[in-house]
Amino acid sequence: MSSAQAVDGSKIYNEGGGDPAAIACATCHGADGRGLGPAGFPRLAGLSPAYLAKQLADFKSGSRDNPVMKPIASALGDEEVKAVVAMLSAMPSPETRHVTRVDLADSPGAVLALRGAWGRNIPECVACHGPGAVGVGDHFPPLAGQSAEYLSAQLNAWRDGSRKNDPNDLMGHIARSMTDEEVSAVAAYFAGLSH
Ligand code: HEC
Ligand code: HEC
């Protein structure tokens, strides 16, 4: 392949990268990029390219320690990362219910999501993740459109220290301040926004 030849993000996604260890992403993340909830495979469609590239770098460095994604991320070249994240961010986001901060917080998950638990320095999730948790800019990923399995796995990864890739321990602090019940409740709440 000549170096001038453009790297094809869709080809990497659907067929794999140049290194065979970079398995086709679609196998797990789905042809539509919406993941496979019960298996813990997250949605990637519509996420910011900078956020996606950061996660791939974090899997590679181990600051986000995951045995499935580490070999895959490590096998992608820089140009391949650029191409696949550009393609993913252009894929349509799933429809999610748009709640606002003034919505009724009528369950423990909704209370944490929309009001927080300031007594324990837990800000409301939507303060950073945006109204309806649709994500904000390059740093704050969407929580809506992800499964309860994936969301709780991430909160638990921060609690056990296997994920420590967030700036200033923002999420680590929050996750460690939460109880098991709160992790399940808030994960179910955000997963429920994408019916
Ligand atoms: C064998 C299944 C599998 C394959 C193939 C796979 N992934 Fe993943 N991916 C996962 C799992 C599982 C996670 C969640 C890891 C965790 O819990 O931290 C994940 C997470 C991610 C994340 C983090 C998303 C977020 O919201 O933070 C990105 C980015 C990602 N994968 C990109 C890719 C790309 C690009 C490819 C193809 C080159 C790929 N994955 C191939 C299973 C897979
Ligand atoms: C002060 C800002 C802030 C607040 C408040 C916040 N988050 Fe986050 N959250 C972040 C940042 C930044 C990231 C991305 C970290 C990284 O770079 O990987 C993140 C990532 C996440 C992820 C991983 C998403 C993915 O795709 O892998 C989950 C799950 C999450 N937050 C849940 C929550 C929940 C639940 C709450 C409320 C209890 C919350 N967050 C409140 C800043 C915040």
From TrEMBL:
PANTHER family (alphabetical): BLL4483 PROTEIN, CBB3-TYPE CYTOCHROME C OXIDASE SUBUNIT FIXP
Domain Cytochrome c: 4-92, 111-194
Residues noted as binding heme c 2 in the record, renumbered to the chain: 125, 128-129, 171
Keyword Iron: yes
GO terms assigned for molecular function: electron transfer activity; heme binding; iron ion binding
Gene Ontology CC annotation, any one: periplasmic space
InterPro entries xref list: Cyt_c-like_dom (IPR009056), Cyt_c-like_dom_sf (IPR036909), Cytochrome_c4-like (IPR024167), Cytochrome_c_Oxidase_Subunit (IPR050597)
PTM notes: Binds 2 heme c groups covalently per subunit.
Binding of heme c 1, residues: 25, 28-29, 69
Protein's name according to its UniProt entry: Cytochrome c553
Pfam hit, one: Cytochrom_C
Keyword annotations: Heme, Iron, Metal-binding
